[in-house]
Specification:
- The structure holds three protein chains of three kinds.
- Helix content of chain A is about 0%, strand content about 50%.
- By secondary structure, chain A is mainly β.
- The radius of gyration of chain A is 12 Å and the shape is globular.
- The termini of chain A are close together.
- Chain B is about 45% helix and about 10% strand.
- Chain B has helices spanning about 10-35, 50-60, 75-80, 85-90, 125-140, 155-170, 190, 200-205, 215-230, 260-270, 270-280, 285-310; strands spanning about 65-70, 115-120, 145-150, 175-180, 180-185, 185, 205-210, 235-240.
- Chain B is globular and about 50 Å long.
- Chain C is an alpha/beta fold.
- Chain C has twelve helices and 14 strands.
- Classes of the chains: A mainly beta, B alpha/beta, C alpha/beta.
- Chains in contact: A-C, B-C.
- The interface of A and C includes residues 12, 42, 43 and 65 of A.
Chain lengths: ~80, ~325, ~325
C-alpha cells in the first residue's frame, strides 16, 4: 500500500507550482509529518509534510513546474 | 440638530440663497403647469418643499465643485448653476438641451457648472461621488464633491459601501441626505431601522450631522462647515437635511400614504414663504424681493419659449456618443 | 535535463501575468492620471491575487495604487467618478463573477454616461477582471460572461490569446476614451509566450489573422486559440487549410476582417469558452449569415462550453468545457 504525493491546490488562484526541492532523499525512510518537499508559487514557498511514514519514492524533478494534482512521488 | 454656526450667513448670502430658492420654486411651478396642460410628457419628481435646502447647500460651494444628484434633482441642478434655458430644453427633449435631449429629466449633466451625473438609480450616485472626490484628492485640486440623495437611498448597499470607502480614504466628499420622510410611498420608520440617517455615520466613523434643511441659515452653516473640513483634507461628512416634499413621490402621486395632518402641518411651515417673511424681517425691502422675483420669472418665460421652440434632435444622434467614435449608419 | 536545444527557448518569453504587469507599469509611467485600485492590489496585500499589480504601489505610491474594501459597487463607482473627472482609472474586479454585484455601475453608468450626457462627459475607465474554467473553483468563480457586456451599448470588451497581445491590448484599453472591460484568463496567467517587441501596440476593434488559410475560417478569442491553433496545425497535415481569426476585441468586433475572410473561405466556425447558448458566437454567426448567406458553402458552426454552471468536480468540469475534438468536428462538418 503506497500513499501518493500530489501537488496540492493552495488557494483559488493556484493552478501550478514549481517543485523547488526535495527535503528527503529518494528511498529514505520518512516519518509521518516530516517535511519531504517544497513548492513555490507566485505567492509563497510551502513545505509539504509526509502524510504517512514509510519509504519515499521520488518521481518528479526539482526545478520543474507541475500542475495542481500532478503525482510527484509516493510513500511506501 | 446641529447648533447654529458661529457665523450665520450674511445678508448678501441670504439674498443669494433666496434668489436660487425662487428660481427653483418658479421653475418647478412652471414644470407642473406644462405637465398638467399636456405640453410636457415626462415623469416628474417635484422638489416642491425642498427648494431652500438646495439653495442654501449649493451657495456654500465653489462653481467648480462637483455635484452628483438624483432624479429628484432639479432643485440641486438649478442651485448649482445649470442654465435654466438648457435645463428646460433638455426636459423638453430638444437638441438644445444640456444633453442634446439624450439624457432627459432624470439624467441632467452640465460639467461646466460641476453637475457631473444625475442618476435614476437610487443610491448609485454615492460610489461615483467618491471617484470624483478621489480625483481631487490625487490631483490636489481643492475641489469638493457633494452627493445628494433621499432617505430611501440609505437602505441600498451602495450607500454603505460608499460611506465606508470615503471614510477609509478620507475623501473630500459630502453626502447630503435630503430626508423628506418618505421612500417613494413608504414612511421613513417603516423602511429604515436607524432613528436618524446621521446615526448611520457612526458605523463608518464618519462625521455626521442632522440639520433642519428648510432653515436657510442652519443648512448653509452645516454645508459650509462640511465643505471647509473636506477642503482641508479632514475627510467626508454625512449631512442629514430634514425636509418635506409636497407633491408626493412623482407628480400625479395621490399621496394617500401621507396623513392629512402631517401634510397640513408641512404646508403651514412651507419654507419658501417663511424665508421671504424672514428677509422682510431683516429689513430687505418688498420692492427688492419683488424685483428679484420678476427678473427670475422673466428669465423663466424666455427659457420655456426657447425650449419649446427648439428643434428635436436629429435621428442620426442615435449613433453619436455611444462611443467616442460615431457608429456606422 | 538533456533535452535538445530548441532555438525557440532563446527568444525571450513572458507570462500573461508579467504582460499585464508590464502594461500597467508602462501606462502608469506614461500618464500620472492613470490610477489603479481593487481588492488586494497594493504590495502590502500581495500585489493582486494573481500578482498582476505586484510592485506598482511601491513604485507609484499609495495615492495612485490602492487596495480597496471588498466593495465592488464602490470600486467601479470610484472608477466611474475618477474617469468623469478625466482621469484614467484601472479598476480590478478580482473575478468576473463579482462583476455581477457591480452591474449597476458598469451597465447603467459606465456604459451610458457618455450618451446620456450628450457627449459632455466620458468614462475612460478600464475594468480588469479574471475568470476561466478548469481550476476547480466551481460555479461562482469561473464564468465567461463577455456576452452580457458585449450586449450593452457603450462598453468595449477585450481579451487576449497571448501575452504580447495582452500587454498591447490592456494598454490600448487604458488609453481608450471609452469604458473597456479587459478579461484575463486564470488558467493562463503563468502560460508563456514570446515577449512583445518594444513599442508593440494593438488597436481596439482590430482582429488579427493568426493563421492564414483558404478552406475554412475559425473565429475565436482568448484561451481557445490554443486548441484552435493545434487543430489547424493537425488539419494542415491533411491538406485542410484553416484561417484563424483572433478577435481580440469582442465588442465592437471587427466585422470587416471576419466578413472578408469568410467571403473568401465560404465556411466558418466560431469558438469560445463561454457557454454556447446566446453567446458571442451567435452574434458573429448571425452577422456572417446576414451578409454572406448566398455565398456560404455550409452553415456556420459554433463551439462553446455546455449550458450549465461551471461544475466543481474535475470530471464534470472537463465535460463542461469546450473540447479540441469538438472544434475539429465542427471544422470537418463545414467541409462535408
Amino acid at each position: 500500500m503506497s500513499t501518493e504525493l500530489r501537488i496540492p491546490k493552495l488557494g483559488m488562484s493556484m493552478t501550478e507550482a514549481t517543485l523547488t526541492e526535495w527535503l528527503a532523499a529518494d528511498g529514505a525512510q520518512v516519518s509521518s509529518g516530516a517535511l519531504v518537499y517544497a513548492i513555490e508559487t507566485d505567492k509563497t514557498v510551502t513545505e509539504i509534510e509526509a502524510p504517512v511514514g514509510g519509504v519515499l519514492r521520488i518521481s518528479a524533478e526539482p526545478g520543474e513546474i507541475y500542475p495542481v494534482g500532478e503525482l510527484v512521488g509516493t510513500i511506501e | 440638530m446641529a447648533k447654529p454656526a458661529d457665523a450665520a450667513p450674511d445678508r448678501d448670502t441670504l439674498l443669494e440663497i433666496y434668489r436660487r430658492t425662487v428660481l427653483i420654486n418658479r421653475t418647478d411651478e412652471r414644470f407642473r403647469a406644462l405637465i398638467k396642460s399636456g405640453q410636457l410628457a415626462i415623469a416628474y419628481y417635484s422638489p416642491r418643499g425642498q427648494e431652500v435646502l438646495s439653495a442654501a447647500l449649493m451657495t456654500a460651494l465653489r462653481p467648480d465643485d462637483y455635484l452628483v444628484t438624483t432624479y429628484r434633482g432639479v432643485h440641486d441642478q438649478l442651485a448649482k448653476g445649470v442654465p435654466v434655458r438648457e435645463l428646460w430644453a433638455e426636459y423638453a427633449g430638444r437638441a438644445t438641451g444640456t444633453c442634446k435631449g439624450k439624457g432627459g429629466p432624470m439624467h441632467i449633466t452640465h460639467p461646466k457648472t460641476g453637475v457631473m451625473v444625475t442618476t435614476g438609480i437610487v443610491g448609485s450616485g454615492l460610489p461615483i461621488a467618491n471617484g470624483l472626490a478621489l480625483s481631487s484628492q490625487v490631483r490636489g485640486d481643492g475641489r469638493v464633491t457633494v452627493c445628494c440623495f433621499g432617505d430611501g437611498a440609505s437602505n441600498i448597499g451602495a450607500f454603505h459601501e460608499s460611506l465606508n470607502m470615503a471614510s477609509v480614504w478620507k475623501l473630500p466628499v459630502i453626502f447630503v441626505c435630503q430626508n423628506n420622510g418618505y421612500a417613494e410611498s413608504t414612511r421613513y420608520a417603516d423602511g429604515t431601522s436607524a432613528a436618524t440617517i446621521a446615526d448611520r455615520g457612526v458605523s463608518y466613523a464618519m462625521r455626521a450631522v442632522t440639520v433642519d434643511g428648510n432653515d436657510p441659515a442652519l443648512m448653509h452653516a452645516a454645508a459650509r462647515e462640511a465643505v471647509a473640513l473636506a477642503r482641508a483634507g479632514e475627510g467626508p461628512t454625512l449631512i442629514e437635511a430634514k425636509t418635506f416634499r409636497f407633491m408626493g413621490h412623482y407628480f400625479g402621486d395621490p399621496s394617500a400614504y401621507i396623513p392629512k395632518a402631517e401634510m397640513e402641518a408641512a404646508v403651514a411651515a412651507d419654507p419658501v414663504p417663511a424665508f421671504r417673511a424672514r428677509l422682510i424681517e431683516l429689513q430687505v425691502s418688498e420692492t427688492q424681493l419683488a424685483a428679484m422675483e420678476a427678473a427670475i420669472e422673466a428669465e423663466l418665460e424666455a427659457a420655456v419659449a426657447y425650449a419649446l421652440e427648439s428643434p428635436f434632435p436629429d435621428a442620426a444622434e442615435i449613433r453619436r456618443d455611444v462611443f467616442k467614435a460615431e457608429l456606422a449608419a | 535535463m538533456n533535452a535538445p536545444v530548441n532555438p525557440a527557448v532563446l527568444i525571450e518569453k513572458i507570462t500573461f501575468a508579467q504582460a499585464i504587469n508590464m502594461a500597467l507599469d508602462e501606462a502608469m509611467a506614461a500618464d500620472p492620471e492613470v490610477l489603479l485600485f481593487g481588492e488586494d492590489v497594493a504590495d502590502r496585500e500581495g500585489g493582486g491575487v494573481f500578482n498582476a499589480s505586484k510592485g506598482l504601489s511601491t513604485k507609484y505610491g499609495a495615492a495612485r495604487v490602492r487596495s480597496t474594501p471588498i466593495s465592488e459597487q464602490a470600486i467601479i463607482g470610484a472608477a466611474v467618478g475618477a474617469a468623469l473627472a478625466g482621469m484614467r482609472p484601472v479598476a480590478e474586479i478580482m473575478l468576473m463573477n463579482f462583476t455581477t454585484v457591480a452591474m449597476d455601475q458598469i451597465v447603467n453608468h459606465a456604459a451610458k454616461i457618455r450618451f446620456m450626457s450628450g457627449g459632455q462627459t466620458a468614462v475612460p475607465l478600464t475594468i480588469r477582471t479574471a475568470t476561466g474554467a478548469g481550476t476547480g473553483n466551481g460555479g461562482q468563480h469561473s464564468d465567461m460572461l463577455e456576452a452580457w457586456f458585449a450586449h450593452t451599448a457603450g462598453l468595449k470588451v477585450v481579451t487576449a490569446s497571448n501575452p504580447a497581445d495582452a500587454k498591447a491590448l490592456l494598454m490600448a484599453c487604458i488609453e481608450d476614451d471609452d469604458p473597456c472591460l479587459f478579461i484575463e484568463n486564470i488558467p493562463s496567467y503563468r502560460a508563456q509566450g514570446p515577449a512583445p517587441e518594444p513599442g508593440y501596440r494593438a488597436k481596439l476593434g482590430e482582429a488579427k489573422i493568426a493563421r492564414a488559410g483558404d478552406d475554412v475560417t475559425v473565429i475565436t478569442y482568448g484561451r481557445p486559440m490554443n486548441e484552435v491553433s493545434a487543430v489547424a496545425e493537425k488539419l494542415a497535415g491533411e491538406g485542410i487549410s484553416v484561417e484563424v481569426i483572433d478577435l481580440r476585441t469582442i465588442a465592437p468586433f471587427d466585422e470587416t476582417t471576419v466578413l472578408n475572410s469568410v467571403g473568401r473561405t465560404k465556411r466558418a466556425v466560431v469558438v469560445h469558452e463561454a457557454v454556447k447558448n446566446f453567446g458571442v458566437g451567435a452574434e458573429v454567426s448571425s452577422r456572417i449569415h446576414e451578409e454572406l448567406f448566398g455565398d456560404l458553402k455550409s452553415a456556420v458552426r459554433r463551439v462553446g462550453s455546455r449550458f450549465a454552471p461551471v461544475p466543481f468536480s474535475p470530471a464534470l468540469e472537463k465535460a463542461f468545457i469546450y473540447q479540441a475534438d469538438e472544434i475539429e468536428a465542427a471544422i470537418r462538418a463545414t467541409l462535408d
